[in-house]
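Feature request disguised as a bug report, sorry. It would help if multi-protein outputs had a clear separator. Right now it looks like this:
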Amino acid sequence: MNDQIQQQHHFQNITDMSSRNASFDAACNCPALLSNVTFIRHGENLPIFVPEDLSAMQLDVLDKLLLNKHSENTVIITIAGYGMRHELYNWIHYMQTAKEKKFVVFCTDAKLYMHLIVAGHEERAALIPEDWFVSSPDLFRDTTLSMLDDDPRLSHVKTWVLQRLVYSPVNALMLDVNQFMMHRRTREYIQTLLRIRGDTQIIATQDGLDQRTINTGLLLIRSNAQAAKRILANTIQIQEKQPSLNQQAAFNKALNQMELHVKTGMTVLLDIIHFPNGLNYFEHNLPESKGIKPYIIHANHKFGQDRRDLLKENDFWKVSEDYVDGISYQIEDILKRTNQLLEQQDNQKAEPLEDAP
């Protein structure tokens, strides 16, 4: 640059850029060492950090995923804790009725994991590893609460598991345990929508009739999808800043910060007549008014015993509670005996050794 005006303009640009970077660095409280993350500024309200990769998935968890993957690399998953065991076994009944024998239940606690093993579902059960929890896992290991009933804890775990799976070699079709699959080949139908358009990274159900709000009770995430990685990273960041916010609210906030296109965008919404939520199915009778039998029904507008009563009244409660409770008694007995044995071992270690004669 021999021209003096060009030189002055060039160095002014460098000075301005340095000033802007310095201002941004001063406002940012991010860790200094970020070797495995990419800094991305898009339309988000705050800068987000999207990991380039995550720690290697535990081999036992990866084995369960690969063992239960379907054609086109899709694995059906759900997430549950011990307090949700009756709802979970009801969900399993509908999976089996729809001829879906391959799925993975991610357990938030070891008690449910043991329950599934005793019930013969060892190949379909995985205990969520501790390093998948963004926050301390102790609160999420609590086995006394359902976590299904409007509890943000479960929705935090769902986001963390989804983030792990989007970096895995399988497409994850996550269903809540109060999603009832009514048709065979439902999975194939949803997979086809993912295959039709290469831009599609997320398939979800709607939470209303305005096609504006996603219901995260059903999500199909394409493996290693870059935009999906960013949305999940942003969802986690939003939930960490607002712990009382559930996954659905945080996920929609993340989506609203992106520029989405109906024809070329990353998201496809399933129609609400074939995939109704609880309000549209049980209260508004939307599918039946059109003469349509839904693929999946999401019973999400009632909570606790009110939901159970509703499902029983409408013949959606297929689980044998006596069967589930019988296994629960076995688990309690196993844990009781194990604790007694551990106490005996601890007492023996604590006893002083007798002096030799």
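(second protein starts here, but nothing in the output says so)
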Amino acid sequence: MSQFLISKRLTSLVWIIFSLGAVTGCSGGRQVPVSLDDLAQGSCEAKYQSDCPMFYRGELFTGIAISGELEHFYRATQYENGLENGYSFSVFNSLLHETAWYKAGKLNGINTTYHFASTGKPQWLRVYQAGVKTEQSLYDESGVITSYKRFEGDEEVESISYAKGREWRLYYFVDGEKRQRNKDYYANGKLKSDSEFIYADYKKLKETSYYRNGGIKTQFSFDRVTQTAMLETFAAGGQRYSEQHYAYKPRSALHGVQLSFCVENKQVKSIKHYNMGVEEGEFAKYHCNGQLISKRTYINGVVIDKQIKTYDENGQVLVIKKLNGKGKVLQESYYDNEAAKWVTYSTAD
């Protein structure tokens, strides 16, 4: 777009605003925009200078104040009863630089600054309520958002970073505790993972990861009351593959029941039990038709069974192991189909 057309459009914009903002003066005629240099600020005890009203010819000013030159730097602002009230904009080198809304002398509404030297698209977008900033967004020169922040009073309560316009990192508070949320993506833009952490110690509270087709790959959740966690894994087709449980006190370790499943029919494939990373309880494996393969029992990490059998899918015994009750295998037997008999041999030293 040529500078001439830009300048023409801005000139039209100025006079439209002037027309809307023109008011009736004391003499009954229409008041035209006046130069900011012709306004005078009366003395007052307000904390901020912007709260001190402007006067024009001895009266509180209501109308449009202008400053600068349209071809260089130019600003036009609406006033009511001496204070900025309504629309305001500024131009730099004939390009729109900033727009804002005011109420009773304070920013109120959307305040926008532009990439005026390049694309002319918004760069900063801020939202105010009675002079207090509540939101803030930053955009790159192509108009894609790169960050967002939300405020409550003087506190930043939420912050989001974006990568290629996609939410990437988020900071926020839950019951006064700062949290962090991370999102990762595949090259095709599909969500790869979505996780939430405690900001102070980076302890993971929950996480979901995804396959490229969008299906769930893993799900992790942490219970802060019990200091335990569960991790579920899924096959690409959506079938649940495993369920693992963890404890985090006094350290992180496998704790409780651990399950795996047959993808084709959801049958339990294995069951294991741990106590803070140590085998404790029943360990069992199954064929996908539900038939037991083998089972053993642990106490404090040691197998206490004196005999363990292994079965085929039809329930026929394939192997028999004899143990000493302390985890050591003493003897093993297997059925030799060719000889049609059981073969037994010692495994003891």
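Even a blank line would do. Unrelated, but nice: Residues 3-21 form the longest helix (19 residues).
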